[in-house]
Structures are given as structure tokens and as C-alpha cells.
Amino acid sequence: MKIQQKFLLLLISVALPPLIVLFFFHHRTMYQLGETIGTKTQEMLIQDEREFLQKTVDDYSRILQKDKEILETALRVQAREVERRLASPPSADQDQEVKFPEAFAGKKQAGMTLTGKHMRQTRTGGLPPVWVDYDHQVWFTPGGIEREALKDDLDRLATLGKAYRFVYRLHPEHIYWQQTSLESGLLSFYPAHSSFPEGYDPRQEAWYRQAKRNQSLTWIMTEDPVTKVLTEVAALPVSTPDGAFAGVTAITLVNTGLYSLKIPKTWAQHVQVMLVRYGTQSGRPGERFQIFTHQASNLPGSLMTSQSERANTYVPAANEEALQKILADLLDQESGVQQIHHQGQNLLIAFGSHGPNETFPVIILPYEPIIAQATKIKTLVGDQTAKYLTLTGGVFVGATLFSILLALYSSRSVTHPVRQLQNATNALARGDFETRVSVSSGDELQELGDIVNDMGPMLLENQRMRQALTVAEKAQQYLLPERAPRLEGYDISGLSVYSDETGGDYYDFMDIPGMETKNLGIVVGDVSGHGIGAALLMASARGALRAYVSLQPGSLTQTLTRLNTHLIKDTREGQFLTLFYGLLDVEENRLDWVSAGHEPALWFRKRTGTIAELPNTGMPLGILLETAFEEGGPVSLENGDIVLIATDGIRETRNPKGEIFGLKRLQNLLIEHSDLTTGNLCQKIVSVLQDFRQGTIQEDDVTMVIIKVRAENDRTGNKE
After folding, report:
1. How confident is the model at residue 401 (pLDDT cuts 50, 70, 90)?
2. Do you find a cis peptide bond into 90, omega within 30 degrees of 0?
């Protein structure tokens, strides 16, 4: 008996009351299921956004710290140039550089320009731009000080504008003003302008007085006297040649830290982002938040930076219990994410880690954008349930008169779509992704039919993507050495195990022609990230390195310098490459190397049974153009010595408890199995890492090259 006949008999034989009861419990179950789905979806979305917010503020806290370190270095360079000039004899040959504010007064002068950075607040709230001259510094003296009395210092510092320009061009996105104020009252200011306020004396400014009092590098938040904009100032005292206090040099910053922040499109119209300082305002009780920079969104997917209208205000720390949790974390200077209800809104507030009196990022995101999708699902399920319950009443009224006709219609309306769905799923299983069904029953079967219709294109696209990844994986394998070189007296092996189909690790062996002795180039690299993007950058770096090696075979530092220049032009922001490039002199058993931020190589010394590290000699490639790479070594290899060059995927492998494999385990593994051949030792390391992970997925690529000096290559004549 076919299913249609069985279903017809079942509908006719079952009484209407049990059918109504089934309808009732069915709809109730669906309603509860919808509530559960919506609630769980809300919890998952909130948890995901909490983690994303935490990562975002942590990342930007690190950016702020890095920017701070860079600018402190720039300030020290500026201070060194000031002190160097103060220590030199005055030169009367610099009059053309000495310009006071009146030289730049009036309308636009030659060389002056308007920028979107220097804006002056007027009494009426306007923001007209300030004319500045990036080619000159300007000199200023407070009232009552004769300029002629300062001529010696003017002559000494006349060329200081060159130092200002040098520092500014290194960090134009951070620097607002540069200035040096001497205790004598002389002020050097860059870029030049004429907008000094009446009665201005830099020696009375908070940054000058605090740096003088601390006698050390000082950070302070203050209102800029020229533009009335809230800024941060880094100030450093400078001394005369005999060590006496001479004055203070400073760099003024504005709107730092948030210029590169990208916000997901789903947040763009709701999120608020601020740079905040937490502390106590002079003359006011209690702990307060001082808003330094506020960003408001008006373009989808991005933020437009603007100075907050509340930039000079202190926001009192409320007594609400939820806000007190935030205060507790801030007192510990820790980052975190808190969920609060404030002024009628449910909010997620994320804040970054910070030091005493340091600015830190704060992101405020309402719940509504996060849970909108889950709320929509809950509403949809509720509407559908109410609709079904209404239809149930109509079915109850007409069921008695039309039970048989309803049974016939219902049996066919169910079994026919089911047969279509069965045939369609069988066709999809056979690989016919063009198959479609036409179900217009208006119920869950129609929704299921729509899902089946959507599955075909999705499965076809998935198949194409897998084929493309397979091709990419094979192409990348061709870039790796087919086999390790066979050298008399040496056992050398290399191995890469990628966490995805493609990866950013690679190794290479290169014969180095044109040198007096036989040499082998050995390369191990690790591109940030993994996947297709990292694989493409790896391929580009490999080709460029081989080309540069052929130009200067014996120069390790020149080769990496050229490769660094190539990568800076060829990579997007945020990508970089760590690289170990070694030159093995086969005849002399000598290894020279240069390491660009790469994991230190391990050198097992057979004679002593100890392990030494071959450290990196420079920063990673693709970050800064002006980067120097020093050559390491040489080291002389002896009988039985092993050199392991690997990426950080080995050391940073984690087990289910979150523990990392670490350097110590790797060193012990190398010592314990030093008698293995290099090929077997590579496989042993991979096997030990798999056991350590205990079934968890491999999170990063693992690449290694192992060099072992055989017994017959012992130059001392000793035999194993």
C-alpha cells in the first residue's frame, strides 16, 4: 500500500478531537521552539560581539602603546637635536632662518598653506583654518623680553627647523605641533604661523612646568593655546652642555589612535568610539572619565573622526551598580567588556587596558543591532503560530462536513511535495546541482522546498571552491623543494605542514654560484596569517628572494634589504614576513645567517650536549622601509651538530587545556632524538605535536629545516 493510501486511511480513522489536540500541541511546540531559538541566538550573538569588542579594544590599546613608544622616540630625537645645537657656538650665518610671528601675519604669505588639521575655534563656535608654513619654524618671545638679548640662542637654533621637518615627515599622521621653549623665554614653534594668543608665555603652560618639575619625559592632556583643541603633549627637558636645565622641547598630538579603526557595517549607525582618560580632575571630587576624542558614524561601514563637543568635559562616575563594575576594572587598569542598562538602554561597553593617566579606547554598542536578527526570528515564529492557531478554528468548524475531502486533499498535498523533495535530494546526491522543485503548499514543506532549491547553487559553488583550493594547494607544493640537497658530509631535510589547504610558511634550498667555496642557501619564512592571501605573498617573496640572491650571492644583508623594499611595495597594511636566510659553507662547515624577526634557530652541539640559539638580527620584512639587517655568525659546525630552523607554529602549538608546546619541550625533543636522521627527526616532531594537540585542530602552519653534520664530515678526524 502506498503512503498516500495509508495517510488517507489514517486521517479518516482518527477522530477530529485528537486531531485538534495534535494541532494545539504542535503549535505550542513550535512557539516554544521559536522562543528557544531566538533566546539562544541572542546569547550567541551577544557572546560573539563581546569577544569581538574585547579583541578590538585590546588591539587598539596595543596600537596606542606602540604609537606612544614611536612618538617618545621621535621626541628624544628632537631633544637630541636641540641639545646638540645648544652645545655649538652661535653662528651669525643663519639670519635668513630667524622669523617672528609678524613675518607670517595677514593674509596668506608665500609658502603658507591651509590644512584640515589646524583649525582655530572662535568665540562664536566657528572653526576657521589656521595658515601654517611647513618650510619654516617661527620664533616667539613673551612680552617684556628683548629679542636682541636672545641673539646667541637664536643663532644656535636657527637650523632647528630642519630637525622638526625630519621628525614630522616620519610621523605626519600623529604630530600636530612641535616646539622648544627655553628658560630664557625664547620659543621655537613648527610649523610656522602667526596665531599666538595675547599674553602667551610657554613657560607657564602645564606641559612646560610639569616636565621641568619631573625632569623626565612627561605626557599631559591640555587645551592647545593656538587652536583651542584638546590635545596630548609629550614634553622632555633639555640641558645645556654643563647639564643645567635649558628648557623643554615638546610634540603636540591630536586625535591619535582611532584614525585606522574600521567598524563592521552592522554597527556603523549605532556605535560610539572614544579615547578616554580616567582619573581625578583638579578641584573636583571623585573619579571621572575625561573624553579626549569622540567618533560618530555617518557613513556605512566606517567612522568619520571629529573632535567631541564634550572633549573638555569630565563625565562623573555614576553610582549605578553596573557602572561600578566598570570602575573596578579601570582601577586595575585592565581591559574588559561589561553589559549594563543605562538611561533606558541596554548597552555593551568595551574598554582597553591602560597605564596610569594614559588614554584608552572605549566602544559603546547598543544591544538592538546585535539582537535584531534574533528578535526578527522570534517575531516571525510568533506571527506564524498565531496564524496557524486561527486556521485551526476554521478547520474545527468545517472538519465534520468535509473530513473525507479534507483527508484526500491533505494526503495528496503532503505526499506529492514529499515525493518531489525525495527525487530532488536523490538528484543532488548524484551531483545534479541544477535540479529544482516546485512546492506551493504554503507550509513548512514549501519552506523546505525553497531550502532544497537553494542547496543546488550552494553545493555547486562549494564544489568549485574546493576544486580551486585543490589547484592552489598543488601549485604551492610545486614552490617547495622537491627534495633536500644531498651534500657530502651533511644530512639535510625540510618539511611544511599547513593548517589550511594553503599556507604562508615556506622553506627553500638554493645553490649559490659565483663564490670561492661551495655554498648552500637555506631559507625558512613565515608570512603573517595563513590561507590564500598568505600563500600569494609567500610565492611573491620566494621569487623576489631568488632573483636578489643571484644579483649579490654572498651578501646576506643586501639581499634582505632589497627583499624588504620589494615587500613594502607589494604588500597591504598589516602583512609582514619573518625570514631566516642562512649561508652554509660546505667545505668550511661554517654557517652565516641573517634573521628578519624570525623564530631563533636552535643549534644542538653534539660535543657538549647543549643547545644554543641563533637569534634574529633584524625586524620582520614588509613593515618599515628604513630597516637595517645585521649578519649573524659565523658559527662553526662540528661532528654530530644539528641546526633546527623552524617557524613559530611548533612552539605555539596548543593542547585542549590551552598550554603551548613551548621552547623547552622542543629543546628536550631535539636532544633526546639527536641520533635520528633529519628526515625521521622531522616526522618525529610532527608526530609529537599531534599527540600534544590531543585531537584539537592545527591552528598554524608548521615548517622546519634540519641540518645535521655527519660523522664523515668531522674535520678533527674523530669518528663516531
Report:
1. low
2. no
Q: What is the mean pLDDT of residues 344-367?
A: 73
% of residues, the chain, pLDDT over 90: 26
Burial of 338 (0-12, 13-18, 19+ CB in 10 A): middle
Find cell 579583541 and name the residue: 55
Nearest to 290 by CA among 264, 272, 253, 316: 316
Give helix 367-429 / helix 3-13 axis angle, nearest 10°.
130
Contact 187, 181 (CB under 8 A): yes
Helices (H), 430-443: none
Sequence-distant (6+) residues with CB within 8 A of 211 are 217, 218, 235, 236, 237, 248, 250
188 pairs with which residues across the strands? 139, 180
Which one, of 503, 385, 558, 416, lies nearest residue 25 by Cα? 385
Q: What is the pLDDT of residues 633-645, one digit of tens each?
A: 899 999 899 999 9
What residue ranges do the domains of the chain occupy? 91-253, 480-713
- Between CA 105 and CA 524 the distance in angstroms is 60
Considering the domain delimited by 91-253, tell me its CATH architecture.
2-Layer Sandwich (3.30)
The span from the CA of 660 to the CA of 435, in Å, is: 49
What kind of fold does domain 480-713 have according to CATH?
Answer: Phosphatase 2c; domain 1 (3.60.40)
169 and 193 in contact (C-beta within 8 Å)?
Answer: no
Going 215 to 219 to 225 to 227, the CA torsion angle's sign is: positive
Residue 285 in this model has a pLDDT that exceeds 90? no
User: Per DSSP, which regions of 145-244 are E strands?
Assistant: 175-182, 187-190, 218-223, 230-239
Residue pLDDT, tens place only, 458-477: 766 666 555 544 544 554 55
